[in-house]
Amino acid sequence: MKLNKIEVLAGISSFLATVYIVAVNPAILSASGMPFNAVVTSTVLVCFFGSLMMGIYAKNPIVVAPGMGMNAFFTYTAVLGMGLTYQQALGAVFWAGVLFLVLSIFNIREGVVKAIPKPIRHAVAAGIGLFICFIGFQNAHFVVANPATLVSLASLKDPHTLTFLAGLLFTAALLVRKVNGAIIIGIIFTTILAYPIGRWWGDAAAYNFGSQTVVNYTGFFSWPDYSLLFQADLWGSLKYSFLPIIFVFAFTDLFDSLSTFVGLSEASGLTDQNGEPKNLKESLITDSAATLFAGLVGSSPGTAFIESSVGISQGGKTGQTAIIAAFLFLPLMFLSPLVSLVPSVASSIALVLVGTFMLSPINKINWKDLSEGIPCFLALVLIPFTFSITQGIVFGLLAWTVLKFFSNKKSEISWVLIVINFLSLFALWV
């Protein structure tokens, strides 16, 4: 294969736009009890496998990596919220990949996708954005617990808060100026900024502000940690009460992938003769395979990254762009000690800003139609307020079904949606 200079540069650009996930994904998943260095390895493997398959099989210039939102759902809803072990949660990711793969291969996805109202999909995407933004503020200790009001703003006299604000505004300024790799540059800047005030991470936990404890740091490089490979509890994750987890992983991944492919194709002209996203079936199969693979190697689901638009805007039009990006991820498997130096005050910046990007679909919702606006509002706010993507989706769909029925808009309720409602409610009840 002869390399095209434009495609190579586009691949580098896409890599720089998405590489922040190698620091952020372990920061989120390690809260579930998974070893940090092992999650770095599994994250890189998912990025490499998914992007390489996207380039070779689907022939699209789209990077695949563990999805933002799904990693938060994995840790804060599945493990910490519903009590799954991380091994069971990995099993749920695997089965979600299998379900997604079946839907993609046999084109069943179209019926399922049509059953979920587009406005609810937009609301869920925005709700997930608020969810991961809230997690980012919490992890950065910018928003803290308050016994009187549940949450409140941290003290602006706290150097931790000031460091976070400085890093957030610096990174936002880079994004506004359309600097390639803005988020990863912002994370590095904030990590360096945090060092003088005692936020230097090493093999042990970070020491507190004002402490003189020295971290026993041994270097930037280490061999990859493969301890999470094949740790998924495939049979333990098939308990009936865990089915909502598999459902949310599969269908959120499906909706996210579809919206990404449609959005990128519309913006870049990557369409076929019918105006549909180029190689859509192959791209969805790649996404589902990346999710299945993620469950086996120890990560939350893999999905197409909207940040691939950076490489596409640089002229990337073929699978070469994704292939170049895939190989650029590989060396990071040997840099887990370096990645572990990134404090939560720095990695949280990515959560907040990506949450901002995910709010854009809400302008597609018809808020004046209350039979649409109320269900979308419930889905939007219940995801962050209940700390559960599952409950936001379930009650959004339930409200849609009930309100459309009583507003004489029964044509907007499909039998598939009714079945999904009953299964979801029953599973939550159990």
From TrEMBL:
It comes from Lacihabitans lacunae. The chain crosses the membrane at residues 7-28, 34-56, 63-83, 89-108, 120-140, 160-176, 183-202, 242-264, 284-306, 318-335, 341-362, 374-401, 413-429. The keyword Magnesium does not apply. The keyword Translocase does not apply. InterPro entries: Azg-like (IPR045018), NCS2 (IPR006043). This is NCS2 family permease. The lineage of its organism: Bacteria, Pseudomonadati, Bacteroidota, Cytophagia, Cytophagales. It is found in: Endomembrane system. It is a multi-pass membrane protein. Belongs to the nucleobase:cation symporter-2 (NCS2) (TC 2.A.40) family. Azg-like subfamily. Keywords: Membrane, Transmembrane, Transmembrane helix, Transport.
